[in-house]
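Sequence, please.
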């Protein structure tokens, strides 16, 4: 993690909506919580790179701008503990998505709440705090 205080981790869907400018409600929510207090899981960073390369419709200059903004966020990396927590989640819930399990486990390891628009999948995870 970078040397900036992280108060919450944002899920991939929050970051993509925030930086693409598609969702004013998400921008207001992130502003209230503090963009400077937001971190992202390394898993979300990988997902966002894929999204930018394959789905985001904008010119090259806009893509570079979004990549710089994403790179400015503190990244919370996976550890042995978070990978074991994610493994337990997928062992007990066969429908658990790998990326969601890794993001949730990272939040749990660092005792950080997750800001997501996908509450339905995450609310099933015991010990995970959602915003």
């Amino acid at each position: 993690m970078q040397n900036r205080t992280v108060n919450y981790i944002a899920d991939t869907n929050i970051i993509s909506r925030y930086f693409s400018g598609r969702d004013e409600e998400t921008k207001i929510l992130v502003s209230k919580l503090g963009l400077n207090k937001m971190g992202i899981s390394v898993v979300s960073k990988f997902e966002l790179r894929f999204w930018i390369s394959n789905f985001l419709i904008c010119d090259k200059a806009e893509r570079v701008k979004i990549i710089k903004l994403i790179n400015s966020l503190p990244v919370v990396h996976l550890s042995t503990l978070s990978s074991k927590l994610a493994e337990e989640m997928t062992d007990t819930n066969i429908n658990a998505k790998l990326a969601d399990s890794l993001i949730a486990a990272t939040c749990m390891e660092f005792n950080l709440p997750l800001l997501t628009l996908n509450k339905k999948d995450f609310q099933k995870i015991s010990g995970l705090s959602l915003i």
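The chain has one domain: 8-120.
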